[in-house]
Amino acid sequence: MEKFILTVEKRERKGKGAARQLRREGFIPCVIYKNGESTPIQIAAKEMLPFMNIATKEKLFVTLKFKEGEKQAILQDYQVDPITGKLLHVDFMEVSATEKIRVTVPVVLIGEPIGVKKDKGVLQHGISEIEIEAIPEKIPGHIEVDVSDLEVGDSIHVSDIKFEEGIKVISDPDEVIATVTVEAEEIELTPKVEEPIEPEVIKKGKKAKEEQEE
């Protein structure tokens, strides 16, 4: 797992108003969780944003550097503004170098399947993350899955992935990571329906009624 260092300050101000003020001052409000307890902190946005650009794609082991010492953690969750996309809040989970933790690791598909190149099949993505349990130094940043040998009808499941010793897989082994299917043919979903021909007697009846109403 790649390592990152962030300079951290304890956060005294709390609440939505205080959080907005912190962001205006160039800080991101954060929280560190461990064993059900939480510690409010703040980190400069100029440090946090480069970290988040990687941490949203890779599982990172980060060192949170306080004035009085350091803590090891991983990104647990984060919030962004749904309109502007700006980072609003970040949650970290404190970890121990010797303590096993459960995390989800991103899956990255590599290669072009034979079934796509030769038979015009379609590569279908399954789950995008796999949950594992391990000590921090064993946790990979991402899990590469080579799909080059897949032919039409073939699939790769969680059970097909070989992990390093010391990593326990929590995800369902039958979960599909990738599969190659036959190219879907274009089907006209809404068939044309010819309008029924209205009997002449009904037309005359309507016309006669309209003339009477006039």
Give a description of the structure.
This protein has helices spanning about 15-25, 45-55, 115, 200-214; strands at about 5, 10, 25-35, 35-45, 60-65, 70-80, 85-95, 100-110, 120-125, 130-135, 145, 155, 170, 175-180. With about 210 residues, the chain is of the alpha+beta class. It folds into 2 domains: about 5-95, Ribosomal Protein L25, Chain P, CATH 2.40.240.10; about 100-180, Ribosomal protein L25, C-terminal domain (RNA Polymerase Alpha Subunit, Chain A, domain 2, Beta Complex), CATH 2.170.120.20. Strands 1-5-6-7-3-4-2 form a 7-stranded mixed beta sheet. A 4-stranded mixed beta sheet has the order 11-8-10-13, with no helix packed on it. Strand 5 (about 60-65) and strand 6 (about 70-80) form a beta hairpin. The model is unreliable at about 185-190 and about 195-214 (pLDDT under 50).
Task: Reconstruct the topology from this structure.
Blueprint: E1 3-7, E2 9-10, H1 16-24, E3 27-34, E4 37-44, H2 45-55, E5 61-65, E6 70-80, E7 87-94, E8 101-110, H3 114-117, E9 122-125, E10 129-134, E11 143-146, E12 155-157, E13 168-169, E14 176-181, H4 200-213
Parallel strand pairs: 1-5, 3-7, 8-11
Antiparallel strand pairs: 2-4, 3-4, 5-6, 6-7, 8-10, 9-14, 10-13, 12-14
Form type: elongated
The CATH class of the largest domain turns out to be Mainly Beta
How much helix, percentage-wise, in residues? 10-25%
* N to C succession of SSEs: EEHEEHEEEEHEEEEEEH
Count of DSSP helices?
4
Largest sheet: 7 strands, mixed
Structural class, judged by helices and strands? Answer: alpha+beta
